[in-house]
């Protein structure tokens, strides 16, 4: 996937640019930044360059992606999975970014919860975690009646496995098998609560055109999180 990643991600530039702008608007110059799931590093480079950030650490489990990220950003890149962040020596980050459904590519809720716990441990007091995930209840993508039925079924008998999907990445002449997870707003809220994280802000971003909404049903889910009990995260927003 690594050599084709730029070509693939350019298809979704409207969405990715909108999320990047949300992140940029909520960061400040001079902060310490950790990025989990950095991919080829192009988005991290853009976000960091906007504020002139130099104290930046990237985490990317794929060796090929990590090599691209080092080339693109010049930042330290650690080849780790999210639930292995105890092996990351740095701590006290003012902001942590986890972008483009990184949590959807983890095995299950136990791995996601463990990862959130390590992110919380790496976060400085008053810091913010900024992340986005694919939304199973996105009515603009899946239709109002489909989402009505999904919401009803999930309310009556929620099953995490209903959010698991398998698909093919079509890039040029290549077809690459992949899988992921689509989250419900309530599912994410439950994970954050169990991890001891406070939701300071929740928005949705249209996957087609990047439009931002306050409704949890009008796009993919974007969150700004902080330590529970410490009040809103202090970064801008």
TrEMBL record:
Keywords associated with the record: Methyltransferase, Transferase
One Pfam family from the record: Methyltransf_23
Single annotated GO MF: methyltransferase activity
Gene3D superfamilies documented for this protein: Vaccinia Virus protein VP39
Entry's Gene Ontology BP terms: methylation
Keyword Oxidoreductase found: no
Entry-linked InterPro entries: SAM-dependent_MTases_sf
SUPFAM superfamilies documented for this protein: S-adenosyl-L-methionine-dependent methyltransferases
Record protein name field: Class I SAM-dependent methyltransferase
